[in-house]
Amino acid sequence: MARTILIINGPNLNLLGRREPGLYGAKTLDDVEKECRKTAAGLGLEVDFRQSNHEGELIGWIQDAHQRSAGIIINPAAYSHTSIGIHDALRALDLPVIEVHISNIFARERYRHHSHVSAVANGVICGLGSAGYTLALNALNELI
Ligand code: CA2
Q1: Which of 7, 9, 12 to mutate for ligand 1's pocket (most ligand atoms within 8 Å of CB)?
Q2: Dist CA 78 CA 64 (whole Å)
Q3: Does the Cβ of 28 fall within 6 Å of ligand 1?
Q4: Domains (ranges, CATH) in the chain?
Q5: pLDDT digits over 87-123, tens only?
């Protein structure tokens, strides 16, 4: 069985570390990817790390995941709160899914309190900064 974890990042996460460090921390998305690769190597996992600002592209990656991935870590960013399409794509996929948010979405605006992804995720990690990604890798390692 494939031991590759697909890590998907949604819109504007390419700006990590460059804007709003008080909210999202000082690490760039490249730094997060490096941390994920290091943790994955220790667990004997491969990582396929991606970011897109386009909902349809994210949905395409989710649809294709069953061919080459053992599980998904997804930070859907703003699409968490709006996208039935991402919810449906994850629901149709028979792979474990962990949803990650860098910030604590429940301590923020009301419109961030609900995520359409959470109902189709095996687990949700939020508010722990970029450590959420490596915690999710450890959790997925137990699930796959
Ligand atoms: O806390 C998270 O990880 C979020 O998924 C981040 C999203 C936000 O819409 C969610 O409610 C919570 C925003 C990602 C935008 O990232 C930026 C990073 C730096 C500067 C500007 C935006």
Answers
A1: 12
A2: 22
A3: no
A4: 4-143 (3.40.50.9100)
A5: 999 999 999 999 999 999 999 999 999 999 999 999 9
